[in-house]
Amino acid sequence: MTHPSVEQVENFGYPLKKEEKYYGTDELGNEVFHGDDIYELNDEYFLIETLTQDSKELLQILGAEKRSA
Fold it and tell me: Would you say 34 and 3 are in contact if contact means Cβ atoms under 8 Å apart?
């Protein structure tokens, strides 16, 4: 019995990426996938990993909620 990742490398030469489920595009044009951390404010969302510290602090002051996409 061979591990699926080993079979993928043997068959394709590299491990296949796990298929990520697309959530949408945030207000700054970044692709967001299910499981990504976002700030949500007034039905708009922002991918946290792309924000500067100042942007994160401003969104928190404005009342944005941190959640998972």
Answer: no
